[in-house]
Amino acid sequence: MSDYGQVIEECKQKLEYIANDNSVPRNIRRSANEVLETLRKKDEPLFLRTSSSISVLEDISNDPNIPVHTRTLIWDVASQLETIPVDE
């Protein structure tokens, strides 16, 4: 699972960048923080944390007000999270 731990850490770094970027609309930053909190919950199974995170990321990536560079980062994070198998 250490490989997946590395994936989660990379995703958290990108989400922290989004959450702290003042050029990103507040609702998008709030959602990035929500996903960060979800990924940090060690008491929930990894597949639950990743699937709920992917769902939120897909929702915010469709926001018409999201800057292009942020949308690309969101898609990158979602893609990385999708590499984590459901049976972990």
Write the CATH homologous superfamily: Ta0600-like
Ends: how far apart?
8 Å
SS content category:
mainly alpha
Helices and strands, in order, run as HHHH
Described by strand count, sense and barrel closure, the largest sheet is: none
InterPro entries: Ta0600-like_sf, UPF0147
Family: Belongs to the UPF0147 family.
Organism: Methanolobus halotolerans
Pfam families: UPF0147
Please tell me about this protein's structure.
The chain is mostly helical. It has one domain (3-83): de novo design (two linked rop proteins) (Up-down Bundle), CATH 1.20.1440. Helix content is 73%, strand content 0%. The protein contains 4 helices and no strands. It has helices at residues 2-19, 26-40, 46-61, 68-82. α1 packs antiparallel against α2, α1 (2-19) packs antiparallel against α4 (68-82) and α2 packs antiparallel against α3 (46-61). The protein is globular.
